[in-house]
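Course assignment 3, question 2. Fill in each field.
Student: A.L.
Task: Predict the tertiary structure for the chain below.
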Amino acid sequence: MPGDEFWVIAEQAGSSVTQLSLEAIGLAKQLQSGPVSAVVFGAATENAARALAQHGAAKVFALESPELKDPLGELTNHAILALIRERKPTHIFLPASSMGRDLAPRLAAGLGVAFAPDCVAVASRAGKLEYTRPVFAGKVLAAWVLTGTPQIATLRPRIAPAAAVENAAAPVEKITPQFPSDLKRPKILEVKLKDSGKPELTEADVVVSGGRGLGQPENYRWVEELAKALGAATGASRAIVDLGWRPHEDQVGQTGKTVSPKLYVACGISGAIQHRVGMQTSQC
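Answer field:
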């Protein structure tokens, strides 16, 4: 789309970036014949910027500040809004993660523009972008066309392949954002990380989920054994989460996580629409 400038606001994962951030770059490159830029933020961004360049970003804006160590919406919104207003991109993609779902509506409200959440496809038609997203609890796919710029969208997993570019490098523009003294600064008091030894549910290639049809909580071990054999992540229906068989972090569905693996195996799950909306973009 000549004359357009696509940005991807990336999410850091440790010293790199999330798979969905790289997939967003892949989608932007499909839609845009020109260069795609990426924005990364945090207390340190060097490794993340390198990963973005290696996956097709032609330029990286690195917002670095000790205050951006944690992805708190108030601070990241202030810093990225200032950059958008100065550089004026036409299209902005974010991952449909907790970070993206928090930040995207803040940016849209601050800029006075609409945004398309939880997109499962984006296509160019007659010179305009068409954003496809599930509505009515996933029973219908709606195609949206946004007016005005910038256009902001959050993208669900596997919307496009993340392709590495050999010997890729990109200029990195480091920016130190300034925060006013009266800006609210929430504080994260403690972070507890749980290492399950399994792939992360929303990024796994294979997911095995269990439901109430397993009969009793002890039988969930069959799900875990199959997942171990397949190198898969484990999920659960809301029914067994509500029963206390599994933690909420395992829940797949409308009020849980959305997954898009290459293979989704459901064990003892009836297939209610509230569950299907969380996995219906699986390839198999």
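Instructor remarks: The mean pLDDT is 91. The first helix runs from residue 19 to 31.
Grade: pending
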